[in-house]
Specification:
11 helices, alpha/beta, four-stranded antiparallel sheet, Alkaline Phosphatase, subunit A, 336 residues, seven-stranded mixed sheet
């Protein structure tokens, strides 16, 4: 069985009708018509992964990605404290995609050395990659909005309660330091985006986990997200980057996270979203449908998490024999 998680797929029905009316999607519409579609309550990708593998939500992203990219995080509490660029857009501060910073390792290291004293009262700074910065916490931290859910949207300021007071102060100090930092001055002179804030999220410690109870459905997890790769390592299953498409391997039961639709859906970029939907059809759904027909794949489960609603589509090989079930438009996926 192939499980395919596709965030960014759910729009309103009218929006989906407008976006897909002229797109040839024969595999997708066939799968929708033959399979069993179930509407689900709104859910993000992290909660979807937690549900599948029996983990508590929200996921401890910092500990998981340290497990994936560096070493076992031990019994400590960790927090993601990632470099971000906040930019003004229509009178709001918007969180830019951190990958657009394209920080080098040397730039990240220089920024971290300067920032570490400001954050010392909260924890020990640890740069595990140019775009993934962690803090080994000195004490438990309050809850924060997950960065993946914030990207492309208006930035929410930290709550004005006592629990967040130390964090508001530290991040304000960090912003002032970043404003005049030589790394940022050099990047600005070169026309590159600057790091002007830090985003705390994904706190917690690595969960204790008995992988024998939850890995029978899947023996591989394909994703470019280090948090997902950390889950694969925790579960002791194969973890790898997302392939370019589905190759129809028989002996594996993979779970793949396809995130290319997520950001264009969040920012309302209809052109890019349509291009990525066409690639999803060509690279994943058409090969999966062919593999179902030939018997090389026993079942396909497509999960579409989203803020408005979520959906689950299950298609088995035997479903394809139901000739009376005709192709169905993608509007069936949409929220009212």
């Amino acid at each position: 069985m192939l499980t395919l998680i596709v965030p960014g797929l759910i729009w309103t029905r009218q929006a989906l009708a407008d976006l897909t009316y002229d797109l040839p999607l024969p595999a997708f519409t066939t799968l929708l018509g033959k399979g069993r579609l179930r509407q689900r309550p709104p859910q993000d990708t992290g909660a979807t992964l937690a549900e599948i593998f029996g983990l508590a939500a929200p996921l401890p992203a910092a500990a998981l990605r340290r497990l994936a990219l560096r070493e076992h995080p031990g019994d400590d509490d960790w927090l993601c404290l990632d470099p971000v660029r906040l930019r003004f857009e229509q009178r709001s501060l918007v969180v830019d995609d951190p990958q657009r910073l394209e920080l080098s390792s040397d730039e990240a290291a220089a920024l971290a050395v300067s920032l570490a004293p400001t954050l010392a009262g909260l924890g020990q700074f640890d740069v595990i990659s140019p775009h993934a910065w962690n803090l080994r916490l000195s004490a438990a931290a309050p809850a924060f909005q997950d960065l993946p859910d914030a990207v492309g949207r208006a930035a929410s300021l930290l709550p004005l309660d006592a629990a967040h007071a130390a964090w508001r102060h530290a991040i304000s100090e960090a912003q002032m330091l970043l404003h005049a930092h030589p790394v940022n001055l050099a990047r600005e002179a070169a026309g590159q985006p600057v790091v002007n804030s830090l985003w705390p999220w994904g706190g917690g410690r690595l969960p204790e986990f008995d992988n024998s109870a939850a890995t029978g459905m899947h023996d591989a997890l394909w994703s470019d997200d280090p948090v997902a790769q950390g889950i694969a390592r925790l579960l002791q299953i194969d973890g790898a980057a997302l392939p370019a498409g589905f190759a129809g391997t028989v002996a594996r039961r993979p779970l793949a996270i396809h995130r290319a639709l997520e950001q264009p859906a969040r920012t309302g970029d209809a052109t890019i979203w349509r291009e990525q939907l066409a690639r999803l059809e060509t690279d994943w759904l058409a090969p999966a449908l062919e593999a179902l027909r030939s018997g090389r794949l026993g079942a396909l489960r497509l999960l579409a998490p989203g803020d408005l609603a979520a959906a689950e589509l299950q298609v088995s090989r035997s479903d394809l024999w139901k000739f009376w079930r005709k192709p169905v438009a993608l509007t069936e996926l949409g929220s009212p």
